[in-house]
Amino acid sequence: MGKEILALPLLLQLEKEQLLQDTLLEEDVVHLQVVFQFASATRRLKLLHEVYIKTKIYSGENSLSRLEKFKNENIWIICDGFLVRSGIVKGILKFIDSSNNVSIFDKVIPDPPLTVIGSGVAIIKKINPSVVIAYGGGSAIDTAKGILYFAREQNMIDKVNFIAIPTTSGTGSEVTNATIITDTETKIKHAIFDDSLLPDEAILDSNLTLSVPADITANTGIDVLTHALEAYVSNKANSYSDALAEKAVELVIESLVKCYNNGKDIEARSKMHEASNLAGIAFNISGLGINHSLAHQLGGRFKIPHGLANGLLLTNVIDYNSQDVSTLKKYAKLLYKTGMVDKIKGDEFAVKVLKEYINSIMKIMKMPMSLKELNIGKDEFHKVKSLMAQNALKDGCTKSNPRKVNTLELEDLIGKIYQ
Ligand SMILES: NC(=O)c1ccc[n+]([C@@H]2O[C@H](COP(=O)([O-])OP(=O)(O)OC[C@H]3O[C@@H](n4cnc5c(N)ncnc54)[C@H](O)[C@@H]3O)[C@@H](O)[C@H]2O)c1
Ligand SMILES: [Zn+2]
Q1: How far is the CA of 43 from the centre of ligand 2 (A)?
Q2: Which residue in 141, 106, 139, 136 sits closest to 123, CA to CA?
Q3: Ligand with the closest atom to the CA of 178
Q4: pLDDT grade, residue 2 (50/70/90)?
Q5: Cα(59)–Cα(263) distance, integer angstroms
Q6: Separation of alpha carbons 282 and 244, rounded Å
Q7: CA distances from 234 to 109, 284, 289, 291, 402 (A)
Q8: Pocket probe mutation, ligand 1, options 107, 116, 135, 171, max atoms within 8 Å of Cβ
């Protein structure tokens, strides 16, 4: 070879013309072309973003009428007992034609445990439904996903049309490929990620959220904010997830406290319902981060509601991630985009405002601000802190966190919220 080929990283920084203008032999040129093709292919690979949006979304007041299309189907509704006892389930039954065979599984409980999934799998095998409707908060939707996942894995059922109808504005599970299942023995929440878990349709009718009590409105609303923030700063974030997360945060700022103050404010409820859905699509594209990895431990171990667990951690995680300058800039960008801070004030000030905003809405919504306030024993907490950090490191959300984290740092973060 007439001229030594430059190392690939250096080559990547140079323009093709720069290299070819020199006195190269013909064989060098061919070789360089191959190297360039390889370089541009690897560049392309690095830039590849997977954006897969499978679920058809029907949003708005009349969206439940979508259920009227089902005729002569074998429909299985998965929801929690409260929705049946309170009569909320009638909100969808009235749209289902009498030609259908309808049965209800009402064993859903918050933070769905493996045992409930197991009993659901035994039932679905017998029923072999053609339509499954998950109706409720994230726990109902995740239970349905878990049952479908294991039943399909074991070839127990035929093709199912899977419809998700959220009744909380929180998890966005109606548009995600995840289900979070709790192993009650080990007290660990495990995430299964699989595109087969994506519902075929999501129906968003904010009227269904009017009955959500104030504390659950607060918890689930903070979950939405955490999804949007984690998706925004994730190391897999891209223009698609950014756009969705920005809009979700804008809607949260506009409407979460309004929903808390007046649960019957349908305009605010509708905005939160959309925010929840948008944030769900955002994190389904770009992933979450250590806020969720740690919240999963708090939920599994101490049964702290998912959104509240996220809220307790949120400002500490922002502090931790902001030590990385590019992440600090990204948080700040969000504040500029939403008009909360003028760019002239600078990035550090913007992140300070973000943390103050979170603290103040949590206080307005009367959310507990520490594990101590939740009556979690100090000794018990310190005994399991390190194990929770180890499990958080293994959680599927950790890999998309913008800063690489170790167990000690996770332990430190979780320790900060005891007080
Ligand atoms: N799959 C995902 O992508 C994903 C994402 C985030 C969280 N999650 C999981 O979702 C679960 C949390 O879901 P959630 O926050 O929606 O809470 P939830 O589903 O556990 O419901 C909380 C409570 O609200 C009640 N409720 C629901 N709808 C109501 C209504 N319309 N009126 C009155 N009460 C109502 C329920 O009965 C329950 O008691 C956790 O297990 C969490 O790990 C899943
Ligand atoms: Zn969440």
Answers
A1: 33
A2: 106
A3: 1
A4: very low
A5: 19
A6: 5
A7: 30, 11, 7, 11, 5
A8: 171
